[in-house]
Amino acid sequence: MRSVLTMLGIVIGIASVIILMSIGQSAQDLIVGQVQGIGSNLIFVIPGGSNNGKFSSPASAQGIVITTLQQTDVDSLSREPSISAVLPEVRGQAEVVYGDNDVTETYQGENANFFAVRDFEMAQGYAFTQTDVESFNHVAVIGSDLATTLFGANIDPVGKMIRVKNTQFRVVGVLVKKGTGPLGVNQDDLVLVPLSVAQNQLLGITYFNDLTIEANSQYNIDFVQTRISSILQQNHGITDPNKDDFTIETQASILSILGTITSVLTLFLAAIASISLIVGGIGIMNIMLVSVTERTREIGLRKAVGATERDILQQFLIESIFLTLLGGIIGILFGLVVVSLVYVVATTFSSVGWVFAFPLSAVFLSLFVSTAAGLAFGIYPARQAARKNPIDALRYE
Amino acid sequence: MNEISIEVKNLRKEYQEEEAPTIALSDVSFTIKKGEFVSIMGPSGSGKSTLLHILSFLDRPTGGSYRFFGRGIDDMTDIELAHVRNKQMGFVFQSFNLLSRLTVYDNVEIPLLYSDIAPAEREAKVREAVHSVGLEEKLFIEAGKLSGGQKQRVAIARALVVNPDTIFADEPTGNLDSVSGAQVMDILEKLHDKGHTVILVTHETYTAEFADRIIRIKDGTVESDKAVEKVRRSKTEFFK
C-alpha cells in the first residue's frame, strides 16, 4: 500500500507529461490541418512590417490600426499576371439582431470572388454577386451556427432581414458548416456582407484590413511573393526592404510559425508537468530510505552470507527502478485513458475536428524518464544500504 | 583431519572512542583444526562475540594475525572476504535472522543467490538442506509462521546449503525452549560428525559441553583452552 501511494507521484507526473504532450500534438495536428486546408496557393498580406523577418507579429495583428493597404494596391496586384485573384477584406464586430435574438459577431466585407477562392459553399440560398457589391446592396451570407442561433431550427433564414450595426441586411444565403478555421476563428458564426457596404457604410474607412491573394498556379509561390513585395514597395514608395509597411504570409510561413509556437508551448507544459515527476522521485527516495532502515537486519544477513556492497546496491536500485518504471507504465496507461476521453468529449461536443494523437516519442520518453528517476532517486538509498556495516546491521533493533 | 582451518596469533581488537580506545580482544592465540567442534565461552562483554565476528570475516582485527585455511585476513579485500563467507562459512544466529515474509525455500536459497550456481542446481541444494533439518513439509510456508525451533532449523539449513567448511553458531539455543534447543544441538552435532568444523559461541556451560574443546574468554583474553571430557548425556537432560 505504501509503495502504491509512493508510486502515485510518478504515475501523476508521467500521466501529466503524456497528456500534455499528446494534447499538444493533437492541437498541432489540428492547426496544421486547418492551415493546410486554406490552400497552398494563397498568400496573405497584412498591413505593418514584421521586424525584418524576425519572429514578431506585425503591428496590425497586435491591434494597431494601419491604413496602408489601399484600393490602388488591389488594382496594381490585380494586373499582375502571376496573381489570379485578389481578395481585399475588412472586418469588424457588431451586434447582429433578428427579432428578439441578438449576438455579437464578426462581420466581414468581401468581394463576390471570395466564395470561390476560399471554397465557401452555400447550404441554402446563394452567395452575393459582384453586382451586389458594386450596387452597395444590403445582402448578407451567414454561417450555419449563427443561422441556428438567430433563427432557430424551424425558420428558413433566407429572405429574412437581420440588423448588423443597426443596418438592415437581407439574408441571401447560409454557408455549409466549415468548423473552426485557422487561428481558432469559428467560420460558422461569420456574417459576410459586400465589401463596399462594410467598408463605406459600416466602418467608414478607405483602407483594407488584409488582402488574400490567390497565386496563379503556373507560377512558383516564392516568385509570386516576390512580385507582391515589389508591387507594394513601389506603390508605397519603399526603397529599403527592411522598412516594408506590410507583411506577407504564405501557408508555409504560417505553418512554420504555428509549429514553433505549439512546440514551445508543448515543451513548456511538459516541463511544468515534469516538476511533479521530481516530487514523485523524492517520494520514491523517501520510501527507499525508510525501506533501507526497516530492512537493516536483512541487509546485515545478506552481507553475512556473502552479498557484496555491489549486490546490495543492485538489489535496492532494481527495487527503486521497478517502482518508478511500474509507476511510469501505469501513468502512460492513465494518460492514454485521459487523452482518449478528451478526444471523445472534443469530437462529441465540439465541431473543432479534434485529432487523436498519442505520440510514441512521449511513451518512450516517459519510460526513459521513469527509469532515470528510479536510478537518480534510488542511488542514494541504495548506497546507504550497501555501505552498512554487517555487524551493526545484524544487531539493529 | 589434521588440516588447520583457523590460526589466530596475538589477535587484538580495539575500538576508537573519544576518551580512550576500548580493547575488546588482546593477545588472543589459538588454532582450530578442520572438523573440530569448538565452543567459545565467556560472560557477557568478555569479547566472545567480537572474536566470532573476526573469525567469521564479518570484522577485521586491529592487530595480530588471522589465517583461515592458510589465507591471511589482511591480504584479502572486502569482496574476497564476502566470497569466503559465501562459500566456506555458514552462520546460525541467536535471533535466527530469517526474512519472515519469505518462504522457507526462499530463505534457505539466499546464500546461493550470491554464488554462481545455476537455478536448477540451487533448487536441489535447497531441498537437500531443508531435508537435512527435517522441514521438507514446511518448504513453502512463510518463515514468520514457524515456531522458534523450526526457525532455527531453517537458519541451520540456510547455513548448510552451500556445504561450508565451517559453521559459526552464535548462541543458537538462546531463544529456544529445551526441546527445540536439544534438536538444534543434535543437528549441530551431526554436522560435526559429517566433518564440518563447528564454532559455537555460548555462555551456557551445558551447551558448550557438546564441543570437543572449550575456549574460555575473559576480559578480551583467552582464559583457558581445554578439551571437553566426553561424557555424553541425553540432550533433553542437558536442557532440563
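Chain A touches chain B through 16 residues (CB under 8 Å).
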